[in-house]
Amino acid sequence: RSVPVIAIDGPSASGKGTVAARVAAALGFGYLDSGALYRLTALAAQRAGVDWDDEAGVAAVAAGLEVVFGEGSIRLAGEEVEGAIRTEEISQGASKVAALPAVRAALLFRQRVFRCGAGLVGDGRDIGSVVFPDSRLKVFLTASAEVRAERRYKQLIGKGFPANMQAILLDLRERDRRDSERSVAPLQQNEDAVLLDTSGLTIDQAVDQVLDWYGSAS
Ligand code: C5P
Fold this sequence. Notes:
Blueprint: E1 5-9, H1 16-27, E2 30-33, H2 34-48, H3 55-63, E3 67-70, E4 73-76, E5 79-80, H4 88-97, H5 101-112, E6 120-124, H6 127-131, E7 137-142, H7 145-158, H8 165-181, E8 194-197, H9 203-217
Parallel strand pairs: 1-6, 1-7, 2-6, 7-8
Antiparallel strand pairs: 3-4, 4-5
Helix pairs in contact: 1-9, 2-3, 2-4, 3-5, 4-8, 7-8
Cytidine-5'-monophosphate (C5P) binds at residues 12, 34-35, 38-39, 94-95, 98, 124-127, 175, 179.
Keywords: Amino-acid biosynthesis, Aromatic amino acid biosynthesis, ATP-binding, Cytoplasm, Kinase, Nucleotide-binding, Transferase
Subunit structure: Monomer.
Subcellular location: Cytoplasm
């Protein structure tokens, strides 16, 4: 039997990263934060002076990324960038470069190598549809835009950053629109994915639901 994969796809700030990492820890599986690869590509392109809409240029940057993932740490060419890739500017840049087919193709093999060991939990937009279509469980994890904006707001305030609820909501909607309307691997719930709306759930409840589903799927 091949290495089992749990795919957790959904919109930004839905909490899928937190849930995916917790499910992976509970099962002793690896964890793939695919959004980080798009964020790293946007950051590396910016630093190299490559425009985010230069498809061939950004694809070359994606193919050449020198990245090392650790626990709560991401190194790009030796430099810690876990904070630098989470800014609002890089979030928008990531969603721009993610709309370019050559960039998605360049990042595909980098995602597939994460499938090793006891199992893998991957989170993103197209893990269940494109990266690992044979995932044993596919979850579409979402929450209302208002709930997602509120979570992002509390997270920023909690870290001591200034935050504006209205601006966050607008940014989220803009990124949702770009992610859903693009022609390659658009954000959408596929028919073989189960819907998990976490608007009224705690993280623990969401994690337990995924573990339950996985238990019945394997
Ligand atoms: O999940 P996260 O917000 O970190 O992803 C950043 C951006 O990367 C998203 O807005 C989306 O455009 C893109 N992305 C993608 N496919 C994935 C993961 C992320 O297109 N599998």
